[in-house]
Amino acid sequence: MKDILTAPFVKEMCDTTANMYRLGWDERNGGNISYMLDEEEIAQYLDINHVLREIPTGFKADALIGRIFIVTGTGKYFKNVKTDPENNLGIIRIAEDGTTAQLLWGYKDGGKFTSELPAHLMSHMARLSVDKDNRVVIHSHPTNTLAMNYVHELDEKKFTHTLWEMCTECIVVFPDGVGILPWMLCGTNEIGEATAEKMKEFRLVIWAMHGIYGAGKTLDETFGLIETVEKAAQIYMLTAGLERKNTIKDEDMIKLAEFFKVDYRKDFLNI
After folding, report:
1. 129 and 104 inside one domain
2. Which of 14, 35, 84, 180 is least crowded, fewest Cβ atoms below 10 Å from its Cβ?
3. Which residues are registered as beta bridge partners of 54?
4. Which of 27, 96, 116, 258 is the catalytic position?
5. Residues 104, 61: Cα–Cα separation, whole Å
6. What positions does the domain Class II aldolase/adducin N-terminal occupy (predicted)?
7. 76-129 pLDDT, tens per residue?
8. Can you give the CATH number for the domain in which 36 is found?
9. For residue 179, what is the enclosing H or E element?
10. What is the pTM of this model?
11. What is the extent of the structural domain holding 100?
12. Of 114, 141, 172, which closes a domain?
């Protein structure tokens, strides 16, 4: 059996968390990631029948029974994942009762998965109902996206439209726009349920005055979605309050979307 520390999915998690910390998106233990894995790939590195311990999830996820995830740990700092993955990450399988996580590897110091796991599982179920290839959910606190929450109206259409205006690539990268939730108490099933409902429509959901949730097929794709929103928000914050002499017009956005053959939110334009 191969050394699990050489597994591509472990390396990807280490690289992604390191990049997110470097960019300032995940201070202290802020942020979390869950990545659904392929059982055949996992079996090359682990005895998937050997359960180290069982941990209640606090949520019934029948649609995910038997699914295996690698998940960042609660209270863990992203800056430490790369140097100590076995303490800061864990591989879990959703047990037959739908409410228990079977630990197959990781959380070596006795820890467990992120407190936001129910929200992640709900978002996974929502995204899988839309696109069976969606495997990743990332939550982070990108600085400029957060700053924009305080100075821009928290209306999905208006917020998305502003982001699309900031960079030519935006409507191509996230043509489905950005969903927004009002401030809600984090770590609860309520915010998880609200996020999952938005995830049926959007791959990106902003938690007002808190951060952003992104979903995608790969870690790279999901990271790239959040990265693009953050770049657009940075440009907005750099230019907010200044006289705007130029902008990307709605008719130009339509040309972009149609040229790159993306299914964009036509109702988020002003035409």
Report:
1. no
2. 84
3. 102
4. 116
5. 18
6. 11-237
7. 999 999 999 999 999 999 999 999 999 999 999 999 999 999 999 999 999 999
8. 3.40.225.10
9. strand 179-181
10. 0.94
11. 1-114
12. 114
